[in-house]
Amino acid sequence: MDRGWSSQLKKGAVELTALAALRDGEAYGYQLLQRLAGTGVLGTSESTLYPVLSRLCQEGLVSVRQAPSPAGPPRRYYRLTAAGRAHLKELAGYWREFTRAVDGLLGEDGR
Amino acid sequence: MAEQVILEEAGRRLDAYLDAVEAALSRGGTPREGRRAIVDDLEAQLREMLWTRTGGGEATIDDVERLLAEVDPPSAYEGGEGTGPARAGGVARGAGGRGGRGAGVESAQGRRGATMKTWILVALIVCGTVLVTVPAVSDWLNQRVFAETVRARAGAVEGFGVTVPDGRLTGLERFAFWVAGGVMIATAMAVGLTDRAKGVTPLPKRVGRAITGP
């Protein structure tokens, strides 16, 4: 597997995957990293995810609240807003079209 | 619940890493509010990882160094959103996890440019200070050595209408030195303060503070 290509693919999809990972409930940054890593394929790094989360927050697609943490500084919990859910739906729709098109080119046996 | 104890050296190392990340974000054009949010998330993550690995006990410099070896280097934050590495293994898990460090993107050119700029500012301040003090130094030297020498030589021809030079700078020359030196210092301070307001401090904090103030 070409790690450069897969890395670029993951980076391109990080906005979609981050929003999707928040769909079922709020999560703080490190927890979100672990959720994505738990999929086995979508793991990304903090330097990729946190800037995206910051932008999503500025764009109003996620809201953030702080809560105390036993480990040190407060945790920042992210939650999808209504605009974020709508944006996720839009991205998901485009993703399905995209993957359908790629699958069509690849054919049944992947060639 | 009591907060974890991080030994002083370990705490300084952690702070230095977070400061370097913030500086890299600044060079990448991330606005101040965004930088704060990203660094806060990162700090919370690192503290939680330390907590997990030490069982809530004291965190040493070795603990912090091992942890920082696994996360992205500060330079990974410089290229803007989405340019950091996406590690194949994902984030490190638990006490024994090793997520594998991403390749990172070294922006050596950007770092060198910023460091060179700061050293130029330092040179401007030093040269400006020298220029400003030249008149005073000149007077001192004149009093000690130069006047005696010149007068000793001039004494041989005194009385023939020759003006005896006294080796002192004229008022205009003094003014020129003061203005040149003052402009250099003022320029360096203005640029340094502007950079500090942007959060760019490529040199160690103590040097940055010496140049621009706390």
Could you provide a short overview of the structure?
The complex is a heterodimer of chains A (111) and B (214). With 111 residues, chain A is α+β, with helices and mostly antiparallel strands.
Shape of chain B: elongated
The Cα radius of gyration of chain B reads 28 Å
Spatial order of strands in the largest sheet of chain A: 1-3-2
Helicity range of chain B: 55-70%
DSSP helical segment count of chain A: 4
Task: Walk me through this protein's architecture.
The complex is a heterodimer of chains A (111) and B (214). Chain A is α+β, with helices and mostly antiparallel strands and 111 residues long. Helices cover 59% and strands 17% of the residues of chain A. Chain A has helices at 3-21, 29-37, 46-58, 82-106; strands at 27-28, 62-69, 72-80. A three-stranded antiparallel β-sheet of chain A has the order 1-3-2. The model of chain A has no long low-confidence stretch (mean pLDDT 91). With 214 residues, chain B is mostly helical. Helix content of chain B is 63%, strand content 0%. Chain B has helices at residues 8-27, 32-54, 61-68, 108-154, 171-198, 205-212. The relative contact order of chain B is 0.11. The chains are: A alpha+beta (111), B mainly alpha (214). Chain A binds chain B through residues 3, 6-7, 10-12, 14, 28-30, 33-34, 36-38, 42-48, 50-55, 57-58, 64, 69-76, and chain B through 1, 3-4, 25, 30, 33-34, 37-38, 40-45, 47-52, 56, 71-72, 76-77, 80-91, 93, 99, 102.
